[in-house]
Each structure stands twice: as C-alpha cells, then as structure tokens.
Amino acid sequence: MRTPHNERLTSDIAEPSLSADSGSERRCILSGETAPRETLVRLAISPDGLVLPDPAAKAPGRGAWIGVSRDVLETALSDGQLKRALMRAFKGAPLTIPDDLATRIEAALARHLGDRLGLELRSGNIVMGSARIEEQARSGRIAALLHASDSSEDGRRKLDQAWRVGREVEGSGERGQVLPLDRTALSVALGRDNVVHLGVAGHAGDMRAATRVLQAVSRLSRFVGNADTPAGAADKVDISGRDTPDQNGQPLSGSPIDDEYVKD
After folding, report:
1. Closest C-alpha to 58, from 242, 214, 249, 223
2. Beta-sheet pairing, 142-147 with 41-45
3. In sequence order, which ranges of 42-190 are alpha helices (DSSP H)?
4. Segment 183-228, tens digit of pLDDT
5. How far is Cα 92 from Cα 83, in angstroms, rounded to an integer?
6. CB-hemisphere CA count at 13 Å for 147?
C-alpha cells in the first residue's frame, strides 16, 4: 500500500496499518475537513493499483479518507477532483478508480453494518421481536432502537413510545432510527426471518454495544445522504459476504469485521 499525505496529521513518521485506538482523526481528501476516523470511509489500493473501499480500516499500509456523501463523491469522480486528490494523496502512484466506486462504497458500508449486527447478535446484544423489544424498552434495557427502512409507521410509533418510557424522556419526541436497510437485508445479516425492528441491549451506564452499532449505521446513513429513507442499492446488497473484492475477486481487507475492530 502507498502512503498518502492526508494521514500525516501529527507526525512524518510512517505508521502501521490502523488500529482501533479511539480519538484519532483523519482528514477528508475532498472536503479538507478533519473528523474522527470512525466517521470517515477509508480508501486503499490493491496490489494492482485498484482503489477500493476499506470500511474496516484493516487493509495493510495507509489509505486515503473521505467524509462526503455519495452525491458529492460521484460529482468529484466525474469532474476529476477525486482523481486529483488521490494522486496527491498517493504521491502520483498509478491508480485505477472504478467507475462504480460510489456503489462499491455503499455496498461495503452496508456489509460492514451487517457484520457488526451479526457480531453483536452473537455477543447477546441484539434484541428482536416487537413484543420482546417493547418489554425490554419499557424496562430501560434498550440503548438503541432501530427500524428497517420498510417498517410501518404504526409499528415504529409503538416501539418508539415504549423506548421513550424506558429512557424517561416521555414527551421529548425522540424516536428510534430508521435504517438505510430494508427487512430483507436485516434478515440476511442476522440469519433470522422477517427482521423489521431491533434493539441494541444496554442502558445509560453501558452504551458500548449501541455505540459500535450506531457508528456503523451513521457512516452508511451519511454516505447515502439521508438517515430516514431507503439507501437505494444498499437495500438490496448481499450484506452477508466479505469485504468488497479487488478486480481479481480477492477481498481487499481479508475478512469481515471482528472483535478487534472496535474495542471496548
């Protein structure tokens, strides 16, 4: 992997591939703004020079970071701004930028979210089934409430109200988050039938699992440009697979996310 200048924010000394340390920031190569790395999307280069998304930030070497929406990225791709930014970041190394890079990023972020949900399910942190979610929400044991993009307004309203009761914020109007994934995508990710709503277990004193899930939700929602509407291709993408492959069909970062990506 080549070393772009946009990761040299505090030191000129080369660093290894990224760890999960909290608090580190990176600069978006398109907007120039600096933000926590958990909110940005990392781009890396495969051995043959293909620019690909690295949502788990695990590909060896360094990468270039972006924090813009899909629309902004597609404009930057079409007018050459992205290519110029990447050439500067990777010091003029030969690059191939796929025309469908935006679609690949959206699909990779959707799979990454699916992997995160699957991992939290295996850890016992995901609550499914409207009746069970409502009961635990009213007891204050749901830290984050999520709804599929094609869930009904009536179903969302009932669980939102129970969630507010459990959090003692009745009258606030706070609602669970509508995901940029439909029930089919959620069902695939969690290996269950007809997942329409889900809760992330936790409480005011333990938001660790909810924070991990909401970080993945937020990145995808920001990229597609609207947190409360379906995410287009992300609604239909197979989010059970491995990270986006390179042009030879090999995963760029090697595997789906695991416990080491976000440490407690």
Report:
1. 242
2. unpaired
3. 70-78, 81-89, 101-122, 130-138, 153-166, 183-190
4. 999 999 999 999 999 999 998 788 999 999 999 999 999 999 864 4
5. 10
6. 23
**What token pair was written down for 3?**
């070393």
Contact between 209 and 125 under an 8 Å Cβ cutoff? The reply is yes
Q: Identify whether the C-beta of residue 98 lies closer than 8 Å to the C-beta of residue 48.
A: no
What's the one-letter identity of residue 80? G
65 — phi, psi (to 5°)?
A: -115, 140
Q: CA-CA distance, 52 to 63, in Å (whole number)?
A: 10
Residue 206: what pLDDT?
A: 87
Rounded percentage of the chain residues whose pLDDT exceeds 90:
69
CA gap 84, 103 in Å, rounded = 20
- CA quadruple 185, 191, 193, 198: dihedral sign: negative
**Structure tokens belonging to residue 144:** 């984050």
- Decide: residue 48, CB within 10 A, 0-12 exposed, 13-18 middle, 19+ buried: exposed
119-125-130-135 Cα dihedral, nearest 10 degrees: 180
- Confirm if 142 and 206 have CB atoms less than 8 A apart: no
Spatial separation of the C-alpha atoms in residues 173 and 171, rounded to whole Å? 6
Q: Which residue has the tokens 């930014």?
A: 85
Closest Cα partner for 143 from 120, 118, 112?
Answer: 120
Question: CA-to-CA distance for 242 and 264, rounded, in angstroms?
Answer: 24
Do 216 and 116 contact (CB within 8 A), yes or no?
Answer: yes
pTM over 0.70: yes
DSSP summary character for residue 179:
P
* d(C-alpha 27, C-alpha 37), whole Å: 8
